[in-house]
């Protein structure tokens, strides 16, 4: 009887030790998994934080570029022989058809005074970035875009940069010019510019309308 009792006690002890070992192993495994999850979350948090910081730096750099451009254009005199007031009342019939339609859609071919820094203004509604990419015509953004000839030259310069057969893989049409003017370099490939092209067509232009 005593032998059986001792054997049962010993067996019970062995079972408890074995179960304790299993629990400890599982606990360690869960702890490792928890640590792995925490480490992954930490790495992701650091990555997102760094990416957000990079975005902030990029935004800050763009803001600084705009400020520098504003400072430059505010102190640079016009290099053209015309004054800012001249050329503000164009004879619309002298404008090539595609440019005429763009001008009519943008402003009714009327002057739109410049207000907020960098915001679109003038008959073609040209903002400061557009003017820069159009070749900085006239040497001064606000004066140029409110001078009809200078604004037209800016549109031409912008199209010479972005509306090329190499980029579009075809000969540019009036539709390409109009949608680039509205939506930027990738305007012809964006559905968001289709409504603008419809407005251009409503003014009597089509793909074959001359630009030059």
Please, could you describe this protein's structure?
The structure is a single chain. The protein is mainly alpha-helical and 212 residues long. The protein has a domain at 93-202: Lysozyme (Orthogonal Bundle), CATH 1.10.530. Helices cover 63% and strands 0% of the residues. Helix 2 (97-107) crosses helix 8 (194-202) and helix 7 packs across helix 8 (194-202). The longest helix is centred in the N-terminal third of the chain and has 74 residues, at 2-75. The radius of gyration is 34 Å and the shape is globular.
Please give the CATH architecture of one domain. Orthogonal Bundle
Q: H/E order of the elements?
A: HHHHHHHH
Computed over alpha carbons, the radius of gyration is 34 Å
- State which percent range the strand residues make up: under 5%
Q: Give the termini distance in whole angstroms.
A: 114 Å
Share of helix, binned: 55-70%
Unreliably modeled segments: 41-86
Morphology: globular
Helix/sheet category: mainly alpha
CATH class of one domain: Mainly Alpha
Summed over residues and divided by their number, the pLDDT gives a mean of 74
């Amino acid at each position: 009887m005593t032998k059986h009792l001792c054997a049962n006690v010993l067996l019970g002890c062995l079972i408890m030790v074995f179960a304790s070992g299993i629990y400890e192993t599982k606990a360690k495994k869960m702890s490792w998994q928890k640590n792995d999850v925490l480490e992954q979350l930490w790495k992701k948090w650091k990555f997102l934080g760094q990416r957000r910081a990079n975005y902030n730096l990029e935004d800050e750099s763009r803001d600084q570029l705009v400020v520098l451009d504003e400072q430059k254009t505010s102190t640079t005199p016009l290099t053209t022989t015309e004054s800012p007031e001249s050329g503000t009342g164009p004879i619309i019939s002298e404008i090539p058809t595609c440019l005429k339609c763009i001008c009519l859609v943008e402003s009714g071919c009327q002057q739109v005074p410049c207000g907020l820094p960098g915001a679109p203004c003038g008959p073609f509604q040209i903002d400061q970035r557009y003017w820069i990419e159009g070749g900085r015509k006239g040497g001064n953004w606000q004066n140029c875009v409110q001078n009809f000839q200078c604004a037209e030259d800016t549109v031409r310069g912008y199209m010479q940069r972005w509306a090329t057969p190499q980029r579009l893989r075809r000969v540019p049409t009036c539709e390409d010019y109009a949608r680039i003017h509205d939506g930027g370099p990738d305007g012809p490939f964006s559905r968001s510019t289709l409504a603008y092209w419809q407005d251009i067509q409503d003014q009597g232009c089509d793909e074959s309308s001359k630009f030059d």
